[in-house]
Structure formats: structure tokens, C-alpha cells
DNA sequence: CGTGGATTTGCATAGGTGTGCAAAATCAGG
DNA sequence: CCTGATTTTGCACACCTATGCAAATCCACG
């Protein structure tokens, strides 16, 4: 393995100083003449600036740390893929961390520490919370953090979510308009803002319409829990279920049809949340609230890059509205296409 | 933002030299006494070694570059999650790159270049090929490459796949034993080794059993293509379909049931490949050949780490066998549970 | 206590780049 | 051609750690 070619080599060949080479490649001022000479020499030698050395001195790595909890829910791979792509376009790269099963605070701590070690320029937490102590540490290190698809009131952290309360409300309206009077709710994890907000919006709107849920069970965004919740609610005779995300909704539908022998939407209407690609598959054909992933990702990247480039920028809280996508898993009210 | 605390600061406080600090943190020899003093001082100051400076001098970044083409197929998020976890356990981190839609050679080139720029210690290509020129460049840079779930004959690259030929053969045996005599095949992309191998094993075994496929259509690992292929094969009156991967199989099943009104497995048996988690969902209940992701990932990591730590290590080609998982989407032969 | 060997320690330098500062070069205008 | 303003260039140093080498320290044994 031959030694790396450095800026000195290029400088020697081009007949200029090392600083000149550096300036050409970091976009600082340089005359046309030297710039040409340098580029030509670099080309000939196959020179590429050493990213590590550059990061060491500038203190900016152009790497984004991304923590993602659970890729089993297809919403996140989709988001991850988009993140990676958008960051690449912005000239950043994505260092991915996954949280172990029992996501303890110690684990988050260790991961954040490793990110700081790598001097990431920014952090995206997808569906992961951040303790105040850690948030403070990132703040102190001057590393901006954006929460994706999770809010954290009073944390002062930037966050991007969909309009979860509104989404929950839309489902309430839709189900009531569809004539349902025994509505149950397999809630998203109530320890997360998304779960709580969807539930709150849903319950509040139901109340405004003079209804009350027959039952609310926390499905914890988990397959097995969702099935358990379904059993409880079916026992109470529901005729419609609002499920906290699509991932659980699939489990719920499978259980309703296969284990309980119920027809969808004949016996029970089911509505989900996310509009994951799979929701459109014929086997589920799930009516669901769309989370506009593309726009959410773009907003997250924009907020992060903004904070990176302008340290004084404020941490924004962004909510993006998404439509209810009508499919076949829930009875459609008269008068709607 | 306060200046970073360096090894000099720690040295001063502990009353030793900077090299002593370095040695303590890089695990070199140091007496108990100094080691204790250094650790204490480091703790008090909140010192952490600067990874960038370390990488710059050692030439090892402890970062693995990972290229993944398409996270829409749930096989890959699953693998990615495991990779990230296993690498973390080994003290490496994962820099993720995604390939744009029309994965041209130029794109791969650019991505590899960026990885080399970041001086990754190794590269995993998940379901992505590598031109000879690029392979040579990695070789020259001393960066080992392992292909995951893709082979490339004659490339001299390390690769980990499942036993695809054998898997295809198993399906052939299973379908014939089930009494099917009009078997069709929605093949995996014939431009990939996995697609070709599965097809070859399948076709060869069929021939040995005195049968021939009613038709073979390349589904290109794509939903729409798989549906098109299904139409073609159904028109030829198939009573069983071997589909190149689960991702396509779901599309095929949806199309068979919803659009064509056929019963599975009553009218048509369907067998997939991968055993993605979703294959076990009641809505599909897909009989499929399991790719043992866990073992494949571990083998890939082991091969890579081995090559990183011992530059003279040979590039191994690993094939891991996986069982046929019997579920309800295909008629089960007499005498099998 | 003396001596040889093993271990530990400090010095100094390398790794490759960005950047402040002053000197040099360029340019415009009279 | 001269002068002052502006741009370009080179020098030297900073960024922070790892490591070869020689000096120093330690240990055990006679």
C-alpha cells in the first residue's frame, strides 16, 4: 500500500505552497492561474484532501449522527433511506446508531457519548427521547439536536412531527360520520408524544361529537401488545378500531380476521396511522392517516443544517399536516368518494 | 463553547507527560500508579480522547462504510439493524450510504470515493455490485470489502450469501412433492447472483425430477414487474409459483387474490424466499426459504473484521444454508407436518 | 550493595490540513 | 512611473494524538 498523496505533493508539483493547495480545495480566494495549476497537479497525482485532517482542524466533520430505535416498523427504514439521501445531497454523511432492545437511559447515554466522540455536526433522534442531562451536554458541545417524529415538551429541542392531534381528530370525525357508535382505540405508546397526541386529539374530537370511546388500550407500538389490546376491545363489542400506527394495525387486522373470524370492514372498521407503503397492499388496504415522510425529513434536515450553519438559530418546533387516506378497511361515510 | 480538554490538560493535572495519557487510553503499557492518576484526572476534567486525531495518526477510523440499495424490501432494514448492532459491539460504527434510484456506475463510484475519503476501515455492500476498477481501487487503498447477499464470481471479493442454489432446489422438490405439475417462476432479478442462483437451482432440480417450468419471468425484485410476470404466468395456467423473494411474493399474492380472484393455495400455491418477518403475518402466511439473517450478518462482520485486523487474510466466500419454512400459502405434501 | 534485565517514562516528531499574519504581487488612477 | 488600495501568496503554527527511541526507573538475585 503506497503512501497517501498529500497537499505538499501537489504543491511541489504545481510549484506553489501547500497553503495554496489548501485554499483551492477549501474554496478560499485563489487566482485563476494557481487554481488551474493546482487542479491539474491534483488530478495527475490523484490527490484527495484528507477529510480527517480537515475535520480535526475545522472542528466540523460533516457527519450527522442518527439514532433509530426500531427498524421493524417500516416507517423508519423509509425515513432512514430518505435521510441518508437528503443528507448526501447536502454534503453530509449519516452515522447510524441503533438502540438495543430494552432501550435504557444508559444505552442512550453511551451512544450520545460516542457521537460526541466522533464530533458529529448534528444529531437526529428518530423516535427516541433525550434526557435533560444529555440534552445539556449536546448543547454544551454546540451540537444541535432534532427530534424526528417525537416531541418533548419543555426540552427546548427542535422537533419535527406530523400534526398528530389533528390526525387523531380526523379519524374520530371519519368514524363517527361512518355511523360507528362503539369505537375502540388501540393507542400508540403513551410514553411517547406521538402516541399521546394522537389519542388526545381522537378522544377530544369524539367528545365534541358527543361520543366516548368504548375502550382505550395502550398497544405500545408492539405487535403482541396490539393483539392483546384487540382482544380486550373486541370483548367489549367494538364496531371500529383506531390503531395508533400502521405497524400495529396490521397485527390487529390479522388477528381480527384469522383468529377471531371477523370481517373488515363488515364487522369492524380499522383505521391506522402513518400510511406506510404496505398499507396500500391489497391484503390490508388500510385506511390511515398519512404522515408525509418526505416533507418531514426535509424539514428535519433543513432545521438541523440551519442550526449547524447558524449557531444562534432558534430550535424550531414543526408540525406537518397529513391527509386521511381512504381505503377499504373502514366503512366510508355516505357522500364521500 | 469552551475549548476541548486535551491529553495535555490531563497530563498537567496528573503530573505526567502527554504520552503517558495517550498510553493509558490506548491500552499500551503503563504502571498502575500513573494509570490511576491519569484516569482520575481525566474523570475530573471530563476528558475524552479525540477520535479524529487518533484516526488521523493511526490511519484507522473504526468506521465501516455500508452501502444499501433498497430499504423498501424489509429484508434489508432487518439486516441493517443487526449490522449496526454487531458492529457497535465490535467497536465499529456504521456510515450508511444509499444508492439513488437508477443505480448507475457513476453513483457507486462517487459513493466509494466518499468512503475512501472518510478512510473507512472496511466496506459492506448489501445487494450491490462493484466494478472491477472500483474493487481494484479499494484493494489499492487497503480497504477490505465484503459483499452481503450478493456474489460476484471472479471478483476476488469476500462474499456472504445464503445457499441460494440449494434453496431453489428445495422449493422445486417441495412443489413437485405437493403434486404440482404446472409450476411457474417469478424470478429474482437475473442481473444479480442471488436471482440467478435461486433460479438455476430451482430449474436444475425440476429437471432432475423430470419436470419443466411452465414459464419463467424476471420480476426484477420489483412490485410492478412481479405483477406483470404473474399475469403472464397465470395466463399459461400455473398451479404453483416460486417467487424470487418475499417482497415480490406479497405483491404476487395480492394480485392473485384481489385482481384475479384466485385462492391460495387452492388455485395456486405460492412460495417465496427470505422469510422476512412479514411472511409470518396471517394475511400472507407465506411458505418461504429462510435466509438466516443473523448468521449471515455475523459471518459478514467476522469476515470483514478479520480482514481489517489481518491484512493478509484471504477473502472468503461463505454460503449459509437456510430451511424451507412451511406455512399456509402452498399445498403441503402428504406425510409432511 | 551491585548488576543485568525488564518495565515505564518523557522527549520529540509525525500525521495532513486550515488559517492569521505579513510580505509580495497585482491593479487602477493620476 | 509612482502611489495607494486590493488581492494573492507563503510562512509558520495550530489541531490532538500515537509511537520510536533513549533515558530512567524498577525488580530480583547473587
UniProtKB/TrEMBL annotation, chains A, B:
It comes from the Bacteria. Residues 9-52 form the HTH cro/C1-type domain. InterPro entries: Cro/C1-type_HTH, HTH_LacI, LacI/GalR-like_sensor, Lambda_DNA-bd_dom_sf, Peripla_BP_I. Transmembrane segments: none annotated. It holds the Pfam family LacI. Residues 5-58 form the HTH lacI-type domain. Keywords: DNA-binding, Transcription, Transcription regulation. The keyword Transcription regulation applies. PANTHER family: HTH-TYPE TRANSCRIPTIONAL REGULATOR GALS, LACI-RELATED TRANSCRIPTIONAL REPRESSOR. This is LacI family transcriptional regulator. It comes from Marivita lacus. The lineage of its organism: Bacteria, Pseudomonadati, Pseudomonadota, Alphaproteobacteria, Rhodobacterales.
